[in-house]
Amino acid sequence: MQSLERELSEKSVWPVERLVQYLQSDHQRFLEEELPRLHSLANAVKRKSLIQFLDSMRTELQGHFKTEENIVFPVLISMENQDPGPLEPALLYACRHMKSDHRMHEKHLKTLAAFQNEMDEDRDNPVVLPLVNALEDFGRRMLLHLTIENRFLFKPYLPDTNS
Q1: Is 10 domain-assigned?
Q2: Is the residue at 83 inside a domain?
Q3: Whole-prediction pTM value?
């Protein structure tokens, strides 16, 4: 967790546009590299339930990322250091919706951790170890990603909530 807090601290001073660029590159990496790699590794160890879960998660994340990139992020960039004025209700709704999605993603990460824990006893297996490590890395990166969004992008518009 120290590593997570250190990375969050470094990014806390970034302007919104730079955060959004970082997050969008994460979106691309998650969908085009990390999830396909996890899928391939899960396939190699014949974990059908994990494969199905990853497929479902990928579909959900595609929709979530598309909404962020096409609607939420552009508005947040345009509103940086400005009073949202009449856009405030829509911005509040969008930020609440994204944060709600993030709570679901946190549950997904717990499910992935359960798959990982289930395979821990097989860590000596050279086919299983890369999957266990990749699940751990993906979980850490996703947690960092959603925490950045919640804490630095959405929280200013949700003053009644914690990070």
Answers
A1: no
A2: no
A3: 0.90
| Residue 137 resides in a domain | yes
Measured CA to CA, the distance from residue 112 to residue 98 in angstroms comes to: 21
Where in the sequence is the domain holding 29, given as residue range(s)?
A: 15-78+90-156
Residue 40 lies in a domain: yes
The CA distance from 63 to 126, in Å, is: 34
Total structural domains in the chain?
A: 1
Task: Render pLDDT for 27-67 as a digit per residue (tens, 0 to 9).
Answer: 999 999 999 999 999 999 999 999 999 999 999 999 999 99
